[in-house]
Batch of 2 targets.
Target 1
Amino acid sequence: MTPSDTLPPCSILLLAGGQGQRMGGRDKGLIEWRGEPLIQHLHRLTRPLTDDLIISCNRNQDRYAPLADRLVQDDESGFPGPYAGIRAGIAVARHAYLLVMPCDQPLLDLALLNALRRKAVEHPGQPVMVREGDQWEPLLCCIPTVHAPVFEQHWQQGQRSPRRTMAELGAVALQCDDGDPRLANLNTPDLLSAVER
């Protein structure tokens, strides 16, 4: 039995709905890295963990659909940001927890994801966010899906910061070392090339 088997079922949301501004407007999830699209690396990591794999994407749905149990997209045009993707994902998630991660962190590993899930179980009702050194990483989190109405309410009130909403819900930190290589955010061509080497 693996540590994953002892944790309650979770839904998983891969965020691939951004504008990719620092990538020249390209769809980040489909950018090739080490011979395959970025999204494929996270798909391989997360697919065994859930029967409810959700991808937030706003274009190229035909490319993403085979990798997901369902797709969600923003209901506003103009790429309103990751809060929109989390809001859409948590609204349809089928399990008690939603594990969220961005598509441009392909070095994440099972130990980190299971640590997030375990911490969420240890703090019932509270979201868990990764904190790298002193820096919160709100797009790498585990959220109890019972809070879907709060995310919707905050969205309607104009909130666009996932970190603020989770802080209001009493978020706890999963502490990681500053510079933890698993948290490398490959969101520019230079970073992609550097880590590939």
Target 2
Amino acid sequence: AKALLAKVYLCRSGWNGGNRDEADLEKCKELCEDVCTKSGLKLLPTYADLFKYKFNNNEESLLAMQWVPLGEWGTQNTLYSILSFSDISGGVAAWGSPFAPLEMLDQYEHSDTIRRNATYFTQHSFYPELCMDKGGYHYDKENAQTKKGAIGGPDDDNDGYVAPMSSPLNTYIIRLADTYLTYAEACLGNQEKLTGGPGLEYFNKVRERAMIDPKTSVTFDDIIRERRIEFSMEYTNWYEYITWFKWKPEKILNLINNQERGTRADKIKKDSDGELIIEGIIQPTSPVVVIASKMFMPYPENDVIQNPLLKAEPVSYNFKD
């Protein structure tokens, strides 16, 4: 609860644009410190383990959707068949595994292979937890498919809890690494750079778990990039964009519209140093441009008809009354 409340304060601090509100930032930092230092919790040592069934409800998981393995429709995690593919499903029907966006692959530093390989399959990567009866799975395709959520077949240390459109894997709502990066962002506040203190320390704990070099200072752009990498394919990024958009609308619109969404490659290979080689870039014929007025959905017309006050300006309310 405190981890989520900290994010609310961070969001509210910049909701009206301009400088972020210092009182909200202080409250955010106070809550983050409480979670980081008093909960007794730590990051799970191995990043890839976060996305394996046997590590459901690990100590980094602060809040998660817990599905019913092999349950009825509506209680099961239907992403299994969408995020997996037949080579690794052990005979279970699977047809998905979306391809990694080129712009997303470009976010990873060369040494950040632990998080990249846990998130996306790339050529010559090996996964001992998949196809275990064959000694593991070597991914040798000349592309990059989604790995998070692709947990293997019913015989791959999943207690048999795998079926078409049914995965036993929890869906994170918030995990401790999120609080670490929220802490860093609140400590950065309205400064250009964060050069020390607990915010930088916790930012680097996330990087150290990924076995990449810590930073001596971080900017807002560093935080955006770190969040995108750490939580890629966990379906949380849009909520961060909304928070940032309300604070820095022009910057975030520019960021979104320069992501080259829809751009793909004919081939994605690796050289002997592990560097990705992109061949045959294909651009979308009609890229979508996001504008400020489309960042929020309008109220449904039926609701507005029943309650016209929904379209009125909000008014302050003292919740202590």
